[in-house]
Amino acid sequence: MSVLTVEGVWKNFHGHHVLRGVDLEVRSHEVVCLIGASGSGKSTLLRCVNLLETVDDGAIFLEKQEITDPRVDVDDVRKRIGTVFQAYNLFPHMNVLANITLAPRQVHGVAKEQAERQAMELLERFGLADRARAYPDQLSGGQQQRVAIVRAMATQPKLLLLDEVTSALDPALVVEVLGVIRELKQAGMTMILTTHEMSFCRDIADTVCFLDGGVLVEKGPPEQIFTAPRHPRTREFLSSVL
Ligand code: ADP
Ligand code: MG
């Protein structure tokens, strides 16, 4: 079953083509990892998927519904997609529990007690239960990012987008965030993530997509991409980062 289909997506900023006819299919429970140099269009692709950007050409389908149709209910689409960015986006004036229950309560209309119960279950699962009443500035960077992921999961999204979620962290804290992502994969979460951590990408991805100048030049299972890349640009990129 296809969760997401990206068909021939083009995006330009001020005449500069950032995405050039990108095709991508993400199946249920699949983990897709986008790699590529800085500026290759990874974040823009994710931002097109969660409708933070409009596409210039092409179409994107979420569970068979065309979400790039201008008549689409943007809020309804975003309810089905969880997103976590590089910088922690927790609300600083709210404790962990309030951060996590905000969207389930306000966007999905879940009752407070139920939202809190579900949030506690998630916190428990990710080893953060004792931090439920803490404020973001009382948490380590790794904990903040784990809470941000828990918060994205609280609305039970069909698809999770993770954009460089470990890039702002000290190496020692990266491990715990990667552990959360690994656990989500084991639980069958469908994800698209971008990362500079090639070893993690290799470990967790079902499919690796290499973007170069807005072109998806190669995609395949990690064993193939990392050991026998077909495209010279992929080889060049990998030799520069590995
Ligand atoms: P990546 O995530 O792979 O580093 P991005 O998608 O962030 O790449 O950026 C791709 C290109 O698009 C870059 O050249 C960047 O400067 C440009 N870009 C991204 N967002 C905008 C924007 N809102 N306005 C203008 N240019 C942008
Ligand atoms: Mg980026």
From TrEMBL:
Family of the protein in this entry: Belongs to the ABC transporter superfamily.
Subcellular location, record wording: Cell membrane
Domain ABC transporter: residue ranges: 4-238
Protein name: Amino acid ABC transporter ATP-binding protein
Annotated SUPFAM superfamilies: P-loop containing nucleoside triphosphate hydrolases
Stored InterPro entries: AAA+_ATPase (IPR003593), ABC_ATPase_HisP-typ (IPR030679), ABC_transporter-like_ATP-bd (IPR003439), ABC_transporter-like_CS (IPR017871), MetN_ABC_transporter-like (IPR050086), P-loop_NTPase (IPR027417)
Organism domain of life: Bacteria
Keywords from the UniProt entry: Amino-acid transport, ATP-binding, Cell membrane, Membrane, Nucleotide-binding, Transport
GO MF: ATP binding
Gene3D superfamilies: P-loop containing nucleotide triphosphate hydrolases
Broad class of the protein's primary localization: membrane
Membrane topology: Peripheral membrane protein
